[in-house]
Amino acid sequence: MAKIVTIKDIYPICTAPEGIPLVIVKVVTSEPGLYGIGCATYTQRWITVANAVTNYMKPLLVGKDVSRIEDIWQMAMVSPYWRNGPILNNAISGVDEALWDIKGKMCGVPVYDLLGGKCREAARVYRHADGKSLEEVGDKVQAFMEDGVQVIRVQYGGYGGNSGNRNSYIDDLKPDGACEGAYYDPLGYENSVTKLFEYMRNRFGMGVELCHDVHEHLDPINAIHLAKELDQYRLFFYEDSLAPEQVDWFRMMRGQTTVPIAMGELFNNPNEYNKLIAERLIDFIRCHVSQIGGITPAKKLASFCEAFGVKTAWHGPGDTSPVGHAADIHLDVSSWNFGIQEWAGFRGATFDVFSGCPELRKGYVYPNENPGLGIDIDEEEAKKYPCSEKLPFWTNCRRPDGTLNRP
Ligand code: MG
Asked: What predicted TM-score, i.e. pTM, was given to this entire model?
């Protein structure tokens, strides 16, 4: 009988090499020198996730056979009885991705081989172009195109068109005594997006694929109106145009436009996305892999989407760790119905803390060929970049009359 390798220790490593809190989970095994790492990053509540890893995942799973990824995932999901929330899903993801990393190392193959093998060499990405003027956004698009990027997300002034109170006229619209917040003007935003796409198509023609992220900043009927306005500009996709609580409006959007719909970075629970996929109300599923519980549920979700003609576009912002990005890329290259990968890119100290990061070359991100996820963390280096306990401000998003909006 083969020797059983068990889980000896599980602990979180919290680090912020780019100033954004990241949570990495390390699973140490009974085999000397054999360990795995996974992403459990929920930037806005990182302390709570780290506590869940230390106080619940470790006592639950120490001593378990590392080869039984599926059973461990199911056990970690039902152990607290109440389930499918972002905190515990991230803690589970950290362990799940680490176990895939370990299994790859034990087999001597990259994780994508465990998932069925490559059906493409690399993952095509979309990059972010944002600016305070149309020219500035256009110049960034031009620079990305010159680097070989084929799909670009364009935002005219951040989410809601106005992140950080850039449009001073909003101050004139506020009532006396309005609360502090990240204010934006929904009507001004909606009109500016139409202008943005008109400018982009006039400047670049149809030679580049463009997408846009509404980030839940419009009322549902206005999100549908904007989709109709943008239909003529042939978007690659129209992202998170509705809040998760309002997804039933997608049926109306679908009935009136052919704008490809991308949705889901805020989803945690299969009940939030199963119906949208099965009824073909979206074109791209955008879940954040650690938020749904790691590689195990993401691979199942990709396969489920394939049956309905829906593609994957896993959420890939700066608050996904490089370990999480590595997991995304292994899924991307091994899922037939891969659509696109969001790519925020790595900077500066990230390369000191993490080795083996996936590499961007001419609009494609490549996994490395090392066994497992192919990425590692230098724990001593990670300590040099402690996470801030400051609460996020941008999620305190408000409309001109002071009403709190979805961020
Ligand atoms: Mg988004």
From this structure: 0.96
